[in-house]
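writing this on my phone so excuse typos. first protein, seq and then structure
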Amino acid sequence: MTPPVVETPPLPLKEVSWGRWTAVASKPATSGVALDGADRIALNDNYVLFRSKTGSNYVVPEKGSVSFAMTSGEAYVKDLSLQTKTAASVQNGVLAFNFDKATFTTQLDVVTSGNRFVLANNGRIGKDATFSASSNFVPGTNMNVSGVISNEKNAAYLFDALLDSHRTVSGMALWGKK
């Protein structure tokens, strides 16, 4: 007699979370720079991005492409001479992955004090579903990006950029499949 085959259900995907690790303007910190049971994926001046250690990684497809729309975002602009931070809005975000080439492109607008800054970059996606682009000195790129695809429908990243000679921005963006 053949013993019955016991199928082990797949582990749920690792969860992605973010927080503000420092108080900014009138908003308190919502996280530390470390989180028990999670790996830190990215960190910038204000935000931290984590992925849980338990569960399975999202398996990045080898073929095809997917586009995401920004579902929410938050950013603060820092005045380098005054050392003050003010809230900015994050708008018009797009994020696209080309799995054939293991690359991504992204763009978003940061709006502060009546000024609109268009930020963009592109980079590589790893087999572990993390992605980053830190060279903002290549023509057409002007922000640093570090993030993770959490599943086929969601992604998150942190970004930062030099807006002009006296202001920087750091922020986070959450993404959902179009």
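second protein below, same order as before
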Amino acid sequence: MSPNAPRSDPAEATGPRGAHKLAALAVVIGIAYLVAGWKGSGPGLGLGMFAIMLAAAAGIEVAGRRSDVMRSMLGRSDERLTGIDLRATAVTGGVLILAVLTAFVVQTARGGNADPYMWLSALAGSTYMIALLVFLRRG
């Protein structure tokens, strides 16, 4: 590539469509939260959760093309963003597994129903083991 050749930015190449789709998904999830919250706990919770998701959708629209975070979330990333995303995903998974295991121990100690946490723990452990075996075989 010559030094004067135009460089293409992955975010510009795909346009804002990906951000629009992600924002629309946030609104759809917000509607589901609205219905579930309204039905389960009343209008206050449903409206509050819907407002949070609308704010998230607005943030996605605003940051859609210029933010490295958004570029990574929309799959328009380079090697650096891919590595950062992989590490962030690993940290998130570790924190969630720790939270589920902690909730299992606490519910068991209280004599409560720990079944949901047991199933989530089993799912996390088995998924990790299967993924590890698959990735080790691939080399």
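Residues 5-15 have pLDDT under 50 and may be disordered. thats all i got for now
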